[in-house]
Design goal:
211 residues; alpha+beta; Glutaredoxin; 9 helices; Thiol:disulfide interchange protein
Length: 211
């Protein structure tokens, strides 16, 4: 499974530099996106959910950040944007648990970019709790509180939930996006980062019109 994930990520990388050929990416089920056979319930009923599955160790997720972050910040109030860490063992699980801990502490929005930079630019592994805690402390987060939360029963529950969702979504690489628990697509199927968000916009509009 892990080799499959990494292979999918490499395929994604080959498409990352592609430029948009049109203002709107033509939506085509089975090509531009996949419609899930079994829709997954959204976290906030009544809102259109957009999920990004990612991994701190993925350079393509890191490169996607400058594109997806400003887009997510401008989403209308009827859209709920959610990040879910992909957890497929080894460093994937360690980094996923790190993200979920920061989210539970309410500080993820403050240190998310710093964690990405540390792993992608500074060569830090951040796969051991003590190493994570030491780094997070440099960002103004209490080290002991971080470790207590990291090892908590609540975080174990969040890990289980994240893994179950990735399985239900049928995720095979990152970054991958899911709209309203129904549609799965990525940089490969869409054609690039801007095109991926164009697909997301169209599927959001499709779901809004269906209400």
């Amino acid at each position: 499974m892990r080799n499959l994930i990494l292979s999918a990520a490499l395929v994604t990388a080959s498409l990352f530099g592609m430029t948009a050929q049109a203002a709107d990416v033509p939506l085509e089920a089975g090509k531009t996106y996949v419609e899930l056979a079994n829709p997954v319930p959204v976290a906030v009923p009544g809102k259109i959910e957009v999920v990004e599955l990612f991994w701190y160790g993925c350079p393509h997720c890191y490169a996607f950040e400058p594109t997806i972050n400003p887009w997510a910040e401008k989403l209308p109030s009827d859209v709920n944007f959610v990040r879910i860490p992909a957890m497929f063992g080894g460093p994937w699980d360690a980094h996923g648990q790190l993200f979920l801990t920061l989210e539970a502490m309410g500080v993820e929005h403050k240190v998310h970019n710093a964690v990405f930079n540390a792993i992608q630019k500074e060569g830090k592994r951040l796969t051991k709790p003590e190493e994570m805690a030491d780094f997070i402390a440099t960002q103004g987060v209490d080290k002991e509180k971080f470790l207590a939360t990291f090892n908590s029963f609540a975080i174990q529950g969040q890990i289980k939930k994240a893994k179950e969702l990735a399985q239900k979504y049928g995720v095979q690489g990152v970054p991958t996006m899911i709209v309203n628990g129904k549609y799965r697509f990525d940089l490969g199927t869409s054609g690039g980062p801007e095109e991926t968000l164009n697909v997301a916009d169209q599927l959001i509009a499709k779901e809004r019109a269906a209400k």
